Amino acid sequence: MIALLGTIGGAKGWEDLETYGVSHEGWLSSFLALPFGIPSADAYRRLFERISLTAFEQSFQSWLVGQLRRWLNFGLTHTSNKYSNHNNHRLALDNIPLSVSILCT
């Protein structure tokens, strides 16, 4: 989660991920268990060296689509029909796999 948030926040490498984590530790610890603190740059490097990029892309894509579907379904059920356009939401969901593929390459 820290790597994802750090990347969204502009991290370009392992040291940037560590810096992001350290600088946001108070906030991150409000929703993440960090019994050993923020991982070091070397810990991120070792972790990502062992991850299959294809498997990661597929898992992340599946997780992201699920999160967005839950979020959109919540929005659709809590918004009056005159403000909702189901077709626009469907188009957005259909384009997620392409977007995730681009991000993972």
List keywords for this structure.
mainly alpha; 7 helices; 70% helix
Fraction of residues in helices?
A: 55-70%
Per DSSP, the total helix count is 7
Give the H and E element order.
Answer: HHHHHHH
Shape: globular
Mean pLDDT: 81
Radius of gyration: 17 Å
> What is the strand tally?
0
Which class best fits the helix and strand makeup?
mainly alpha
**Low-pLDDT residue spans:** none
Rounded to the nearest angstrom, the distance between the terminal CA atoms is 19 Å
Major sheet, described briefly? none
Give the DSSP E fraction (strand runs of 2 or more residues): under 5%
Overview of the structural elements:
With 105 residues, the protein is an all-alpha fold. It has helices spanning 2-8, 14-23, 25-28, 41-50, 53-77, 86-94, 96-103. The two termini are 19 Å apart. The mean pLDDT is 81.
Short description, anyone?
The protein is mainly α and 105 residues long.
Question: SSE layout and pairings?
Answer:
Elements: H1 2-8, H2 14-23, H3 25-28, H4 41-50, H5 53-77, H6 86-94, H7 96-103
